Amino acid sequence: MNKKIYIVDTNIILQGLHHITELCEDGKNIVVIPEIVLIELENKKKLLDEVGYNAREFARFLADAQVKKIEQNNGFKIVKMLNNDNIIDIISKDHYETPMEQNSIAESNDKRIIEVAQLAKHYYKNRKAIFLSLDVYARVFALFKEVETQTLREDRAEVPDIELFKSIEVDDEILKKLNGMDIQDLDKTHLECNKSYEFRGKNGKKEYGIIDNKRVILHKKNDFHGFKVKPMNIHQKLLSKAITSDIYDLIVVDAKAGSGKTLLAIYGAMRLISKGLYDKIIYTRNSIESLDRGADVGFLSGNEEKFRIYNMALYDTMEFIAKSMNKKQDSDNEPENIKQKIDELILKYRIEKLWPGEARGRTLNNAIVILDEWQNSSINTTQLILSRLDSSCMAIVIGSNRQIDNLYLNKYNNGLTSLIKQSQFSTNELKIFAIELQTAVRGKFAEFSERIYEKK
């Protein structure tokens, strides 16, 4: 059997244990863990975020493994382990060529990991040795040592061209009676992911709608009558209609900065609670700020202080909504009055924050669960949160694949992308709506930065 040898960097394991078992392929391949990787994982396992959880999960994986052999060689040792059919070799060098520089420990560790990769290339004769890392600098270091490198398989995957919003031409007579029509009678190439439509008549008139059970639900001018926060463009209107219609279980939004995704999600959820369809709003945000500061927030005194520091984006959204509701007189928008209004809204709509790490062991019911900044969440965290929801819940997942801050994720493998991909398929469990918001609505600064910094 021509086994492959995968020498893995720390970031591969910190992205999820499933990568190790997938690489092993039921004993077909060997995964090599440099001892430096174990040291880095040891330093991460006390963290209370997803990175810490993945480090602890790998520690449990090793604890369950059997030590098959400890091999002493000239200048290095190998501990050969087996966990079910997963073959793991841990390699330690007696002496490293790379000195440990205290002011650049990460770089020193990378180069020592590459030393092990180079050693493995020669030790496992007649087998293809590949160094796997998400870090491009580490991969370049490996190339200098003539070690073949790759990222993960999913990093090299194609991102499907999913048409979430579709524009088609229809006869003018058809345009007058679109509501309730079967979309497959109008669009012979309709796909499951096509949930938003622009219908163009030959006379230039246009209608817009969303699709539910293959039927057209038209957007109407009075859809947002009485809204204090009104959607501003057609994509926002279709998203708001999808939320407030309460016909989808899972709504997924990929949107550029300043497009109003958080505002529309929160306000739409409030409208549904006002109708008595749900009991509360649960807001969870997975960003670099929340990952880094999640442990500290848990020890802050007072719900308001937790709410503000942990979820500034949510607080800013609530402030905007409060001001939109307080337009009777100028005094209503004094800071103390706005603060009071925000407190009233939080109480009235039972708005709770949920740090992703707090979800384990919980069951969420009769709630609208908003998952914000989800481009910074892994597939594991996405599964963790969604698996906590019972059938009485709605989930709204929002994020931007233009703003990925998590070092262990990219646009191919994050939780937001995984759900957008899922919108291509019909499921028995959930009704999914996905849309992309492409227009910034924050104002002149957002428009300016979009024009000069997002040129292709």
Task: Note the main attributes of this structure.
elongated, six-stranded parallel sheet, 456 residues, Rossmann fold
What does this structure look like?
This protein is α/β, with parallel strands linked by helices. It folds into two domains: about 150 residues, Rossmann fold (3-Layer(aba) Sandwich); about 220 residues, Rossmann fold (3-Layer(aba) Sandwich). About 35% of the residues lie in helices and about 20% in strands. It has 17 helices and 17 strands. The strands form three sheets. Strands 3-4-5-2-1-6-7 form a seven-stranded mixed β-sheet, sandwiched between helices. Strands 14-13-15-16-12-17 form a six-stranded parallel β-sheet, with helices on both faces. Strand 4 and strand 5 form a beta hairpin. Helix 9 packs parallel to helix 10, helix 10 crosses helix 13 and helix 13 packs across helix 14. The radius of gyration is 26 Å and the shape is elongated. The chain starts with a strand and ends with a helix. About 40% of the residues are buried.
What integer is the average pLDDT?
Answer: 87
What structural class do the secondary elements suggest? alpha/beta
Question: What overall geometry do the principal axes of the alpha carbons give?
Answer: elongated
What is the CATH architecture assignment of the largest domain? 3-Layer(aba) Sandwich
Largest sheet: number of strands, sense, barrel closure? 7 strands, mixed
Hey, roughly how much beta strand do the residues contain?
A: 15-25%
Helix content: 25-40%
The CATH fourth-level homologous superfamily of the largest domain? P-loop containing nucleotide triphosphate hydrolases
| CATH class identity of the largest domain | Alpha Beta
Q: Which strand order spans the largest sheet, edge to edge or round the barrel?
A: 3-4-5-2-1-6-7
Instruction: Give the oligomeric state.
Output: single chain
Kindly identify the CATH topology of the largest domain.
Rossmann fold
Radius of gyration, Cα only, in angstroms? 26 Å
Low-confidence stretches: 289-303
